Amino acid sequence: MNDPFLNSVTQIRRAADLLCDSAEKLCLPPEILERIFEPQRLVKVHFPVLMDNGSTRTFLGFRSQHNNARGPYKGGLRFSPEVSESEVKALSSWMTWKCAVADIPFGGGKGGVVVDTKSLSKAEIERLSRAFVRAIADVIGPEKDVPAPDMYTTPEIMDWMVDEYSKITGTDGRACFTGKTIGGGGSEGRTEATGFGGAFVMRELAKRKNLDVANTTVAIQGFGNVGEYFAKKAHEYGFKIVALSNSKGAIHNQGGINPNDKDLWTSGHHKITNDELLELDCDILVPAATENVITGENADKIKAKYIIELANGPLTPAADEILTKKGIIFVPDILANSGGVTVSYFEWYQNMHNEKWTKEDVLAKLEEKLDKAFDDCYQEMQKQNTDMRTASYMLAIKKVVDAMK
Ligand code: NAD
Description:
Elements: H1 4-21, H2 30-37, E1 41-50, E2 56-67, E3 73-79, H3 85-102, E4 107-113, H4 122-136, E5 145-149, H5 155-169, H6 190-208, E6 217-221, H7 225-237, E7 240-246, E8 249-252, E9 270-272, H8 274-278, E10 284-287, E11 306-308, H9 317-325, E12 329-331, H10 333-336, H11 339-352, H12 359-384, H13 388-404
Parallel strand pairs: 3-4, 3-5, 6-7, 6-10, 10-11, 11-12
Antiparallel strand pairs: 1-2, 2-4, 7-8, 8-9
Helix pairs in contact: 1-3, 1-13, 3-13, 4-5, 6-7, 6-11, 6-12, 11-12, 12-13
This protein binds nicotinamide-adenine-dinucleotide.
Nicotinamide-adenine-dinucleotide (NAD) binds at residues 194, 221-227, 245-247, 274, 288-290, 310-312, 337, 340.
C-alpha cells in the first residue's frame, strides 16, 4: 500500500541518512528529524454549509502547515473525496522541499475539503469555499500561509476565497491566495508555468547529456494543463514526441506527433494503452497525469533512459530503487514541476508590491529560476553520487535546516 505520508518520510529519511554519511557529515539530531517529518501544525475543521434545498451539511477540511522556516506556508487546497490527513500532511511536506529547491521564500502547506464537487451546484461550491475560508481564516494570511488552487479548485474559487478573506479581515486579501483569475489579481503565465517549466528542465537535461534533441524521443502520460503545455514547448524545442495520452488511452507514432494538431486523437496514430505508453522504447518518459504510476510492479519494464516527473509522486520509493539500479535518471517532481509554485510566488510578489508583469517577463524570470534550480540539483547529484531525487532532497533539507537554526 502506498501511503503518501509514509512515502514522504521515506524520501526525507533516505536523504538525511546520506547527508550524515556524506563528506559534509551533516547528521541531523532526532528532534530536528521529527520536525521535518511532521507538519508544524495540522488544522482540522468541521464547518456548516447551507445547501440549495435549505438543509445544512457539515464538511470536514484540513490545512497542514509543514514548515515555515524559509517563509510563509504555501500550497494548494483540494476539493476531493480522497482528501485525508495523511495526504495533506505528505503534500505539505513536498511543498516545503519544492519551494526550497526552486529557491523561493516560502515554506510548505496543503489543505482540502472532503467533498465530491460534482454533486454540488455552483452556488453550493461558492458557499462551501467561503465557509472553509471562515473556518481557517485565523491561520492563513499573505505573510502566514498562502493557499492556491489544486485538484477541483479553480481560479474563480480563489477569487471567492479572496473576497471572503478580505471581508473577514477588512484588508485587501489578494496576496493571501494565488492562482486567481487575471482580473482578480492573478499572474500572467501561471497557466503555462508548470508545463513550460518542465520543458525548461528537459532542455537543461538534454544539454548535460549531449542529447541530439531532434532524435530524442519523448513519451508523455497525461495531456491536461501540465502535459499539454509541456508537449507544446518540447515540440517547439524540436524534441520528437512519440506518444501522448489522457485517461481514455494513448496514441503512439515513432515518426513523431505534433501536439498542436487539431485532430490529435483521431489522426491515425496507433492506439495503445497507458500501461504500454509507460513501457515504450523511448529516450525520455514524462508522467504528467497522476501519482504512483511507476511502482515496484512495473519499474523493471521501463525502457526510457530518463524520466521527468511532471505529476506529483508518479514514482514510488520501490520504483526509485529499481530505476536507479537500471541506471535510469529521474528528475524529481519537486524540481521538474516547480514552475507552478514559482509563478505563484511571482503572483504573490506582484500583489504585495502592487505590480503587474507581462507574460514575457514572467516566463523569462521562470526560465532563469528553473535553469538555476536544475543546475544546483544536478551538481548536488554529482557531488553526492546519488540519484537526483535524493540529491534534491539533500539540497532542500540543508536549506530548510539552515533556516530553522
Ligand atoms: P489535469 O486534470 O489538467 O490533467 C490531467 C491529465 O491526466 C488529463 O489529460 C487526464 O485525462 C489524464 N489522466 C488522468 N488519469 C490518468 C491515468 N490514470 N492515465 C493517464 N492519463 C490520466 O491536471 P494537471 O493540472 O495537468 O496536473 C497533472 C499532474 O501534475 C498532477 O499530478 C498534479 O498534481 C501535478 N501538478 C500540477 C501543477 C499545475 O500547475 N497544474 C503543478 C504541480 C504539479
